[in-house]
Write a structure and sequence with these properties.
alpha+beta, 14-stranded mixed beta sheet, 14 strands, about 35% helix, globular
Length: about 375
């Protein structure tokens, strides 16, 4: 039967169909797929909820066959990134489909026509609105459970894109890190010297309100300057920063947060954010908090042997000076106290040698790879 493509309006009812499709159909029986929290995903896609729509526009498409949804895709234009790069580029993301060439071709054709109608000349994905959204299509590591917030995809996804002429734009790597019982000697020595010579130190908070008041804005502004030159980065606006402070900081385990400050000025120069892995909990609750899904998440915070390393951000002028050693010297004892055995890195650009170099002190396995594909349209 023929494939029908329908562009949907971003109402809550329509977006629930869009978000539930991969959870309930494509990955219904997958042991590796990590469902997003449905409510969070819907809000990300809603123009009235996501502050990225101040500078982005999007279109959402569902593919139907015989009245059933068989695929989905989003087209996104980030105007700020295009202005910074000088490109006329549309992004595609939130892409899932059955293993059927007719379905894939119809979805890509729909988002291509949409991009062309907006004056775009290139289509790149998978990407979200900004770097705070999942990015990169999984091309290695299909037999591994993902990290919290990462997107899993079947092995046939990238094969269809390559069949359609999409080529590699950039890759991200992910690592599985064995947590040592002690801070590696060389790392501990570097951390000590950093504290003495650079006049910096790590700080901890036990009062969440005080953390938000003192460093809430500073954390996200530091991310902006640290990531500014990375692939496709979209600087966070003040409105976005306020949004993410409310969204993330109330739930962040304070022990798993490491901040490096200049001793005299108290200026934030580096931050390392990690959280207990929510992956198994999200698999159990299938993206739903109620009626009992919240209990799985709460248990994951209390009992876990895996920690997700969400990000490390260091001021550019302090990079390659050993600041990362201070962060890990601070976090490794905490990780052991909580019983974490392994850490999962978030995706890291394969050419970002500054970040990749930090793993030389650890026993690691590069176990997953993600790719942004691109094509002229």
């Amino acid at each position: 039967m023929a494939v029908e493509i329908r562009e949907i309006q971003p109402t809550k009812r329509n977006l629930l169909k869009f978000v539930h499709f991969p959870i309930d159909v494509i990955y219904r029986d997958s042991e590796y797929y990590i469902p997003p929290l449905v409510s969070d995903e819907v809000n990300t896609l809603r123009p009235d909820k996501n502050p990225a729509f101040d500078f982005c526009e999007a279109a959402y498409f569902l593919a139907y066959r015989e009245g059933k949804i068989v695929g989905r895709i989003a087209g996104i234009i980030n105007k700020v990134v295009n202005e910074r790069s000088g490109k006329k580029e549309a992004r595609f993301g939130y892409m899932d489909f059955i293993d059927d060439a007719e379905v894939v071709d119809a979805l890509i054709d729909a988002v291509t026509k949409w991009g062309k109608s907006k004056g775009m000349e290139r289509l790149t994905g998978t990407m979200g609105f900004t770097d705070m959204d999942p990015e990169g299509l999984l091309i290695e590591g299909f037999d591994r459970v993902g990290t919290t917030g990462a997107v899993y995809s079947h092995a046939y996804y990238h094969k269809h894109l390559e069949r359609l002429g999409f080529v590699k734009d950039v890759d991200w790597l992910e690592f599985l890190i064995t947590i040592p019982k002690e801070v590696p000697e060389k790392m501990a020595r570097i951390a000590h010297l950093m504290g003495e010579r650079q006049n910096v130190t790590t700080i901890k908070y036990t009062d969440r309100k005080a953390l938000v008041n003192d460093y809430g804005d500073a954390i996200f502004k530091l991310i902006n300057v640290a990531y500014d030159e990375l692939f496709g980065y979209s600087p966070l606006t003040d409105k976005q920063i306020k949004h993410y402070i409310k969204m993330y900081l109330p739930f962040l385990p304070l022990d798993d947060l490491s901040m490096v400050i200049e001793k005299d000025t108290r200026e934030l120069i580096a931050v390392g954010i990690s959280i207990p892995s929510m992956s198994k909990a999200l698999i159990k609750n299938r993206g739903r908090l109620f009626p009992v899904g919240w209990k799985y998440l709460l248990d994951a915070f209390k009992h876990n042997d895996v920690v997700d390393l969400m990000l490390i951000a260091v001021k550019p002028e302090n990079q390659n000076k050993g600041v990362n050693s201070l962060i890990f010297a601070d976090l490794i004892p905490v990780f052991n106290k909580h019983g974490y055995k392994v850490a999962e890195s978030n995706h890291e650009l394969e050419l970002n040698s500054k970040v990749l170099k930090q793993w030389e002190y650890f026993e690691t396995e590069q176990h997953k790879r993600r790719r942004a594909y691109t094509k002229e349209i």
